Amino acid sequence: PRFPAMASDSGDRHATLKRCLGVLRDARNDSEQFAALLLVTKAVRAGEVDAKTRRQIFDAIGFTFPTRLLTSRQPPADCPPHTFRALGLTLLACFCTDPELAGHSQILNKIPTFNDVLLSPCDPDSTSMVDDVYQCLSAVLATARGPRELVTKGTVSALCQAYLNGGHGSDRALTLLVGLLAIAEAKCWQRDAPQLLAVLSKLSGDFLKAEDMTKFELCEVLPHFIPLSPPLTENSQGSKCLCRLYKGLADILGSKLSQSQRDPALKLAASLVQACGAEWIPAGSAGSKFLALLVNLACVEVRLTLEEPDPVELEGKKEVVTACYVLMEMGIQECLREENPLLENVQKMQLMRIMEEAFGAVIFYLRQVKQEELQDPFVFASVRVLGAWMAEETSSLKQEICELLPFLVDYARKLFKEGSPAVSLPQAELVSTEGSALPRDALRFLLPGFCHLTAEDRPRDILISEGAPALLCEYFLQQWEVLTSESSDPAPLTSTEMSLQTMCGVFLNLVVTAPDLVRQDKTFSSLMDVLLKSLPLLLPQKHRLVLAANVATLGLMMARILAGSAALQGTQSAKEFFGAAIRFLSQAHAAQADPSSEGLAVAVSPSYVSAWDDIRELWFLGMQALAGCIPLFPWLPQAALQARWLEGLSQLLSRVAPASVDFELITAFQAVLVELARGSEQCRSVILSHHGTEWANLYGMAALEQCLSEQ
């Protein structure tokens, strides 16, 4: 059939297109269909097709014909070899502009073909094919299933290659990679780390060499290519990239910069800190100057933005200020680092002073946050970074922090009650959220600071009056649920476990300083119930000994205060708890060979050694608390007998050299032994039958001697 030439008038054009579609629908053979198709694709390429017409083209052709075109190997006479393929891709690119079609399985299963086109040598004739492929891939990326399909079907690798080859459209390859990494970073790196590293290598090389605005443009792109895991420091190519990025950033930050140039540089530095702490900054004076400059610039930025916040201006600055928070958090860690510090003491003092001013600005900002702004991820980032400061620096800004406590407790409570998975800013999560932490778990970051503050009268009173203890009890229950659902394999300390330990510290402070609160506040009874149930489960998990020590000691100290409560009246859970607590306390010490005297000395048991620094104080507190519990619970001596603790302890003290047992340990043992001997005739006779009188005399346990000699 003959077709009229495309008329210039759009109405005529539309009519022609309609006729072509009619021919497409009714074509008797391939050549008729092909001729009509050529005109349709010409219109498509000229961008003359609206959404409705696109749909009509699809309805007329469907996926079958483009699929045949893509697989056809035989081009028509006098046509370049990839004619059919190019036509097929143009049609698919046209269909892809319809979001519904872009996610269709018939498009998704063409991803390998798209990848092939990107990897094929590109001659001048095939540039339109490459453009069509990029259009298809961009459309697929925007669909729900698309990103996963692109990653699993190898598009990341193809895009990396296309970018590195630098052929037609390679800048679009980079844009697509940025988009893919933003959605599925972990999966991309898991599958295609070598290819992504090669791209990072090229980008970091260009970044170091660039002397013009490209340097700042690359600052914007680079953060997308810095993986959070596995760390770049693990292989030599990654380390080289880091070295180039450090040098490039040092060039930038050492020059006079405008605002628009400084912001991307700070964001890039923050993304490096998130990925590998301060490891990318070399040791030595250049590195320490750079680190100090970085933290300094971050603090200045925070003060400039937050001390006189202009709502409109602040909105545009939130991302860069969040990046500055990351740098400040690193500043805190580096100022505290004692092993191989990057900073000298003078620098540390200066930075702490500068950071104090910046945190003053953060507090100033938070005091003005309105109720309707509480969902803003920037508020979360601000609370989080303040939490990092409160965890370490307890003496400065005390007054200001006390005044902010009501807001912090209220904010943490609101987020906890909502459990709201709000979106976080790119830098708002320093570490990718572990499964355990809710995306917006403010309490996790405030706990260490609260632990310090509950040891002091004024902040403790404020926390109590704001209802923090009840909130923390609820949070403890929730985190305990999370912990029990985590696998019990020995794994690195999770944030859940860390939070539970810190909360035990907060509660211990309250037990010691505010026993009446513990006695009267109902929430502590429910906390006691959880402690009773949790210790027997924790103790067998050797890698959780520190948490078990916290739970045991807190439980024993609370039991003294809550002795009258129903849960502790010889119930099964109380007996199991005390049994476990006695096991924890009794298994901490053992006899071991003493090289200096060829005899035996008392030592921390092998399974306790690695944790002893963290649990030593808790153990002594626990012993003291147990001694206090024995007179309150008449059934406790029986538990000690069942555990055969008295026999074990007698044997230990009889075998070791008395000089190896320090005074503090003797005092701890004696306190418990005296209470057991007083509280139970059976305990007394076990001690006596195991030469108790002799070793009590040997160790100078006068109170025990007296108790044993009484008739």
Q: What this model shows, in words?
A:
It comes from Machaerirhynchus nigripectus. InterPro entries: Neurochondrin. Belongs to the neurochondrin family. This is Neurochondrin. This protein has a two-stranded antiparallel sheet with strand order 1-2. It has 711 residues and is an all-alpha fold. The protein contains 36 helices and 2 strands. The chain has helices at residues 10-26, 30-45, 51-61, 64-71, 83-96, 99-102, 105-108, 111-119, 127-141, 146-152, 155-165, 170-209, 214-221, 236-253, 259-276, 285-306, 311-336, 345-366, 377-392, 398-418, 442-453, 457-465, 468-485, 495-513, 515-520, 522-538, 545-561, 572-586, 606-609, 612-629, 636-642, 645-655, 663-679, 681-689, 692-698, 702-709; strands at 589-593, 600-604. Helix 8 (111-119) crosses helix 9, helix 18 (345-366) packs across helix 19 (377-392) and helix 27 (545-561) crosses helix 28. The longest helix has 40 residues, at 170-209. It has a domain at 467-709.
Kindly list the characteristics that best describe this protein:
36 helices; two-stranded antiparallel sheet; mainly alpha; disordered N terminus
Number of helices: 36
**Strand order, largest beta sheet:** 1-2
Number of DSSP-assigned strands:
2
Helix/strand/pairing class, anyone? mainly alpha
Radius of gyration: 35 Å
GO cellular component, one term: dendrite
Family: Belongs to the neurochondrin family.
Protein name: Neurochondrin
InterPro entries: Neurochondrin (IPR008709)
